[in-house]
Amino acid sequence: MKRTYMLTLAWLAIGIGIGIGIGSSARAASTPTTDQLEAHPWQLTRATDAQGKRIDALFVRGRAPYTLRFQPGYMSELNLCNYASSQYHLQGDRLILENGVVTTAGCIPAEVVEQQRRASVLVNGRPAPTLALDDNGSLILRNTHGDTAIFKPAPLPAK
According to the model, what pLDDT value does residue 108 have? Predict the structure, then answer.
């Protein structure tokens, strides 16, 4: 009986391990390196709140997608009403932003103002948001509010 119980537990553990990806060929999301972040701009393609609802404010019809651009030591937020840039570094999977600056142009219409505000909520906060690269090469940002944003690699601007 004891042997049957132990074999059952072993098979159960193997089955659970396979179900969560242990021993399977599926690759889990990984923490990006600064080289990977700085290789190209990252355009927002999807964003949801903690309840899984789309964050509509981050997508303004007729405007280029909200974009993150990492360069050595700096992260810029592009295609918002105002230009935002911060010093950045990674602490494990955490995106640490410091010494940020934002231009102060008057923004019209209201949905552009809200996009700027919501973008700030997305990337700023304590604890700092986490970053991961998924199997498809997308950048996944998760913040303390439970928001999840998916950014796809975009081509570098023409020189």
Answer: 85
